[in-house]
Design goal:
Helix content of chain B: 25-40%
Radius of gyration of chain B: 26 Å
Largest sheet of chain A: 7 strands, mixed
Structural class of chain A: alpha/beta
CATH topology of the largest domain in chain B: D-amino Acid Aminotransferase, Chain A, domain 1
Mean pLDDT of chain A: 92
Mean pLDDT of chain B: 90
Low-confidence stretches of chain A: none
Oligomer: heterodimer
Helix content of chain A: 10-25%
CATH superfamily of the largest domain in chain B: DNA ligase/mRNA capping enzyme
Largest interface: A-B, 30 and 28 residues
Low-confidence stretches of chain B: none
Number of strands of chain B: 20
Distance between the termini of chain A: 35 Å
CATH architecture of the largest domain in chain A: 4-Layer Sandwich
Strand content of chain B: 15-25%
CATH class of the largest domain in chain A: Alpha Beta
Shape of chain B: globular
Number of strands of chain A: 19
CATH architecture of the largest domain in chain B: 2-Layer Sandwich
Distance between the termini of chain B: 53 Å
Order of helices and strands of chain A: EEEEEHHEEEEEEHEHEHEEEHEHEHE
Structural class of chain B: alpha+beta
CATH class of the largest domain in chain B: Alpha Beta
CATH superfamily of the largest domain in chain A: Ribonuclease Z/Hydroxyacylglutathione hydrolase-like
Largest sheet of chain B: 7 strands, mixed
Shape of chain A: globular
CATH topology of the largest domain in chain A: Metallo-beta-lactamase, Chain A
C-alpha cells in the first residue's frame, strides 16, 4: 500500500486512517498516540492515549490524570495491534519517555520520529534507527548552520564562568521538561556536587525524574532561600523567567540559557543572554542527515521546523521528500 | 584569531561598560604586537580591506557549500559572518591564525588571490574564529565598543590619563606600535605630525537656574549655543581637515568649505546652514549630513558655513593654556584678518549681560535665532579637553513638552534588564481618533518611578512581540524634548530631538493627551 493512502496530515495532526488514531494530535480526538511529554505534543482532552509509561506519568503530572483520558502504556520494543495496524514504540533519545512510533500495515512500515536527537543523554535511552519505507522526521534545527557542539564543553564553560565570577549568581534558563534534568545530570557528571537551586516551575518534573531513577543530586527551591544565598550559586529557571521580576533577588546574575538556538549569536544577544550554552535535545543538521542515511527510507516526510532545507537535501540524495504542514508545534524543548 | 574571537563574543554578550573595559584591558595585556593593535583598529573602525567585501565572502561560501542551503541559512541567521562561520564544512581549529598575518598577507595580495586566501583561512579555523575573521575583514563589528571606550581601555592599560591618549590618538596609525611601546614603558610618548591632528574638544556641563545664580556673572562670558554640529577645523601645510566632535572626518561631505579654508591653525566652531540673514533649522544641515558626498544642488540649496568660537592654535602656536578672554581677543583678530576672507567662516558673537536676569531675558529669544540656548564660559578658563568641572556651562532654553500616551514598552539592558524601561509614546490623530507613535524615551524618571512604570506595564499589557509589550492606551507621559523636526521615516511625520519623560501624569485621562497637530505646529518652518 502506498503510505500516503493510510497515513495523512489533517488539521488535528497526523492521522493513521485504518487504525483510527492520531499521532500527537493538536486538538482532542478519540484515540491518540503520544511521542513525548512536551506540551505541544502531549495535549489533554483525548479519550484514549497510548504512550510509554514515562510519557503518561509526565502527562498526568502536567495536565492531571482526568485530562489525559484512559491510558495504555507500551514499553520500548513491545507491539500492539490497533484495528489491524501494528504499533510499536522505539527510543527517540529526546527526553525521558520519548519515543518514535513504528507503524506497520499491509507490509509497509512508516516510522514517525517525533522529536529526537542522536547524542548521548544520561536521562533516557538512545535513539534507535529503524529501517522503514517512510520516515516522518522533525526538522527543528534542519539548517547546516546548526551543528551542536559537545555538551561536555558547554557544561565546562558554565563551570569556568562560575569560577571566574564566584560572587555572581549563575541563572540558567532551561526548559522545565528534559533540558533541566539533563543539564543537572551533565553537571553532576562533570563533578559539580553543590546544591542546585530551582525555580518553582521546575520542581515537580525533577521529582518525577528522580522517582524514575534519575539521580539529580541535591536540589533546593530557589523561591524560599534568602536572597543573599544566591551569591556564587547556580539557579535554574524556565526561560521566560530570565528577565523577569523573579530574577531581581539574584546577586548581579550572569544570565545564561541552554538551548540549541544559542548557536545564533544574535538570538542570544536579543534575549540579553551573557553566557549562551548550546545544549539541545533536538538533532542538529548532521544528526538529521545521518539518520536519513541510516534508516534508508526511500521516502521522507518533514514535519515542524525548517522543512525546506531538509527536503532539498533529501531530494538531492534521491529520496522522495515533502514537507507536511502540521500545525501547533512550537519551540518548547529545543 | 582565537583570542580575538573570544574578545568579540564577550563584548557582544556583555552590556555593561565596566565589564567591556575589563575584557578589553585583559586582551591588551595578553596579546602581542601587532595583533592587539590591529584588533583595536578593527574595533574602532579604522581597519579596512577594500578587497574583502561581503559579496566576495558570500561567493566563497556559496562555492563550497550547496548554494540553496546557504541562502536558506543566510535568510534564517541574518548575519553574513555568522552564517559563513557556522555553515563552513570543515571543523578546523588545528592551527590558529595571527591577526598580523591576515593584515600583512592581504596588504600584499592581488585582488584575484583574496578568495583563495580566505578559503584557506576558513578551513584552518574553528567556527568562532571564522566568525571573528569575517567580521575583521568586512568591518562593522557592532559589539558595542565606541572609540572613547577603546581609548579608556588603552589609558587603563598604560596607567596614563585618558586625555594623554586622546591628544595623540588621531595622529597614530594601526598597529599603533609606538603607542603600545609608550604605554608599556618601553619608549617615550609617540611624536606625531601636529598639522593633521584632531585635538579633543572641551565640553560643557548642563546648568540649571539655581546653580547659575550662585555664580558671579562678572566671571563669565556668554555666547549663543548654536544648533548645528560642533566641528574642529585643522589646517596646515598638508591641507585642511574638518573633524566632528568625536574626531571623525566630515570634510568629504563639505568640499565647499574645505577648499576655501587654507590657513595654519586649529579652530573650534559650529557647522551650520545659512538661510537668508540667519541660521537654518537643524533639519537643513541634516540634509547635508545624510550624504557622504555633497551634490552641486545640495551645496547651493543648503549653504554651509562655520561659526567659530575658539582658537586653539594660531600657526604653530598653542593657545590652549591661555584664558578664555585672551583666546577670544586672538580669535576676533584672526577672524577679521583671515576667517572672514574665506567667505565660509564668521564669528559667534558674545552676548553682553550685566546680571543673570538680563541673560535670562536673552535666553528667551534663543528659539527665534535657531539656537539651543546659551553657553557660559569662565573668562579665565584654559582650553582643556574633556569635560572639566567649573569652566563651561550650557544653559539650554526651556524644553518644550507634550502630553503623550504610552503605547509600547520594551525591557532595558544591564541592570534594567528585568524592567520595562524603554517607552514608545504616541499622540492622537484627532480627539477620539487613533494613536500614532511619535517617539521613544529611555530616561527622565527616577528608579522608584521606573518600578512604578514597570508594574503598570505588566498589569496593562494587551499584546507581546518578543521583548516588547503593547499596553492599553491608559497612561499619559509628559514628554520634554529639545525640538521637533519633520521626518519621512516616522509614520507620524515628526521626529523629536532628545525626548525624555518629564513627568508621569497618573492623574490625566489618556483621552485628554495631545493630538498630533499640536506637535506638528512646533516644527520650525
Amino acid at each position: 500500500m502506498r503510505p500516503e493512502t493510510w497515513v495523512r496530515p489533517t488539521p488535528s495532526g497526523l492521522f493513521v486512517e485504518p487504525g483510527g488514531f492520531y499521532i500527537d494530535p493538536s486538538s482532542p480526538v478519540d484515540r491518540a498516540v503520544v511521542t513525548h511529554g512536551h506540551s505541544d505534543h502531549a495535549r489533554g482532552g483525548n479519550r484514549r492515549v497510548l504512550a510509554t509509561a514515562e510519557t503518561l506519568a509526565i502527562m498526568e503530572r502536567r495536565i492531571g490524570a482526568d485530562a489525559v483520558g484512559s491510558t495504555q502504556a507500551l514499553s520500548y520494543g513491545e507491539t500492539v495491534e490497533v484495528n489491524g495496524v501494528r504499533v510499536a514504540l522505539a527510543p527517540a533519545g529526546h527526553i525521558l519517555g520519548s519515543a518514535q512510533v513504528v507503524l506497520e500495515w499491509r507490509g509497509s512500515r512508516v516510522v514517525v520520529s517525533g522529536d529526537y536527537k542522536r547524542r548521548r543523554d544520561p536521562t533516557c535511552p538512545p535513539f534507535e534507527p529503524i529501517k522503514c519505507d517512510v520516515l516522518v522526521t522533525e526538522a527543528t534545527f534542519a539548517l547546516p548552520v546548526f551543528c551542536h557542539p559537545d555538551d561536555k564543553e558547554e557544561v565546562a564553560r558554565l563551570l569556568r564562568s562560575m569560577a571566574v565570577f564566584p560572587d555572581r549568581t549563575h541563572l540558567v534558563g532551561v526548559y522545565a521538561l528534559g533540558k533541566c534534568q539533563r543539564l543537572i545530570r551533565l553537571l553532576r557528571e562533570a563533578g559539580y556536587d553543590r546544591p542546585i537551586y530551582l525555580h518553582g516551575a521546575l520542581i515537580g518534573l525533577c521529582d518525577l525524574y528522580r522517582e524514575r531513577g534519575v539521580d539529580l543530586g541535591e536540589l533546593a527551591p530557589a523561591t524560599e532561600a534568602p536572597p543573599g544565598m544566591f551569591a556564587g550559586a547556580l539557579v535554574l529557571a524556565p526561560p521566560s523567567s530570565l528577565g523577569d521580576r523573579w530574577s531581581r533577588r539574584m546577586a548581579d546574575p550572569v544570565l545564561s540559557f541552554a538551548s540549541g538556538w544559542m548557536r545564533i549569536k544574535q538570538r542570544a544577544k536579543q534575549r540579553g543572554v551573557e553566557l549562551p550554552l548550546v545544549i539541545s535535545d533536538h538533532a542538529d543538521w548532521n544528526e538529521l542527515t545521518r539518520t536519513l542515511d541510516e534508516v534508508g527510507a526511500p521516502e521522507v516526510w518533514v514535519t515542524h521546523g525548517r522543512e525546506d532545507a531538509l527536503v532539498h537535501h533529501a531530494t538531492g540524495r534521491g529520496i522522495r521528500a515533502r514537507a507536511l504542514s502540521l500545525l501547533g508545534f512550537e519551540e518548547e524543548g529545543s | 584569531m582565537k583570542a580575538f574571537s573570544r574578545l568579540l563574543a564577550g563584548l557582544l554578550y556583555t552590556p555593561a561598560r565596566n565589564s567591556k573595559l575589563r575584557l578589553l584591558r585583559a586582551y591588551l595585556a595578553e596579546t602581542p604586537d601587532p595583533d592587539r593593535g590591529y584588533a583595536l583598529a578593527a574595533l574602532t573602525g579604522t581597519l579596512a580591506f577594500a578587497e574583502a567585501k561581503p559579496a566576495a565572502v558570500r561567493e566563497v561560501a556559496r562555492r563550497r557549500v550547496d548554494p540553496v542551503l546557504f541562502d536558506l541559512s543566510y535568510d534564517y541567521v541574518g548575519d553574513l559572518a555568522e552564517t559563513v562561520a557556522l555553515i563552513w564544512p570543515t571543523s578546523g581549529g588545528m592551527r590558529d591564525l595571527r591577526l598580523g598575518e591576515v593584515v600583512d598577507t592581504l596588504t600584499l595580495a592581488a585582488r584575484a588571490k583574496v578568495p583563495e586566501l580566505l578559503e584557506g583561512w576558513l578551513d584552518r579555523l574553528d567556527a568562532e574564529a571564522r566568525w571573528a575573521l569575517i567580521k575583521l575583514l568586512t568591518g562593522g563589528l557592532r559589539v558595542g565598543v565606541s572609540e572613547r571606550l577603546a581609548k579608556a581601555a588603552l589609558a587603563e592599560h598604560g596607567k596614563v590619563e585618558l586625555a594623554q591618549v586622546e591628544e595623540i590618538w588621531h595622529g597614530l596609525d594601526p598597529p599603533y606600535r609606538t603607542l603600545f611601546d609608550w604605554l608599556d614603558r618601553k619608549a617615550p610618548p609617540p611624536q606625531i605630525d601636529a598639522g593633521r591632528l584632531f585635538r579633543p574638544l572641551m565640553l560643557a556641563h548642563a546648568i540649571e537656574e539655581h546653580e547659575l545664580f550662585a555664580l558671579d556673572p562678572r566671571d563669565f562670558r556668554a555666547e549663543w549655543k548654536w544648533d548645528g554640529i560642533r566641528v574642529q577645523i585643522v589646517s596646515g601645510p598638508n591641507g585642511t581637515r574638518l573633524f566632528s566632535r568625536g574626531g571623525e572626518e566630515v570634510g568629504t561631505a563639505f568640499p565647499d568649505l574645505v577648499e576655501r579654508m587654507a590657513f595654519p591653525g586649529v579652530v573650534d566652531g559650529e557647522l551650520l546652514v545659512r538661510r537668508g540673514e540667519g541660521v537654518a533649522p537643524f533639519n537643513d544641515l541634516q540634509q547635508r549630513l545624510n550624504r557622504k558626498k555633497a551634490s552641486a544642488r545640495h551645496i547651493v540649496d543648503y549653504p554651509a558655513f562655520v561659526r567659530v568660537y575658539d582658537l586653539l592654535f594660531e600657526g604653530e602656536e598653542d593657545l590652549r593654556h591661555l584664558g578664555f578672554d585672551a583666546r577670544r581677543a586672538r580669535l576676533e583678530t584672526w577672524v577679521g584678518k583671515t576667517g572672514l576672507a574665506t567667505g565660509v567662516i564668521d564669528l559667534s558673537p558674545l552676548v553682553p549681560f550685566a546680571d543673570w536676569e538680563e541673560l535670562g531675558r536673552h535666553r528667551l529669544s534663543a528659539g527665534a535665532l535657531n539656537a539651543e540656548g546659551l553657553m557660559l564660559k569662565r573668562a579665565d578658563s584654559p582650553y582643556v579637553s574633556g569635560r572639566p568641572k567649573g569652566f563651561w556651562f550650557k544653559w539650554k532654553r526651556a524644553a518644550d513638552t507634550i502630553d503623550a500616551v504610552l503605547m509600547y514598552a520594551q525591557r532595558g539592558h544591564g541592570k534594567r534588564s528585568s524592567f520595562y524601561s524603554d517607552y514608545t509614546f504616541g499622540l492622537w490623530t484627532e480627539p477620539g481618533g487613533e494613536l500614532v507613535p511619535v517617539g521613544k524615551a529611555y530616561f527622565g524618571f527616577t528608579d522608584a518611578e521606573l518600578a512604578e512604570l514597570d508594574k503598570w506595564v505588566r498589569n496593562h499589557t494587551v499584546d507581546r512581540f518578543g521583548p516588547v509589550r503593547q499596553v492599553e492606551a491608559g497612561l499619559v507621559l509628559e514628554i520634554a524634548f529639545d525640538s521637533a523636526q519633520r521626518s519621512t521615516r516616522h509614520k507620524s511625520g515628526v521626529a523629536l530631538r532628545f525626548p525624555r519623560v518629564a513627568r508621569i501624569r497618573w492623574d490625566k485621562p489618556a483621552g485628554e493627551a495631545d493630538v498630533l497637530e499640536t506637535l506638528v505646529k512646533r516644527i520650525p518652518a
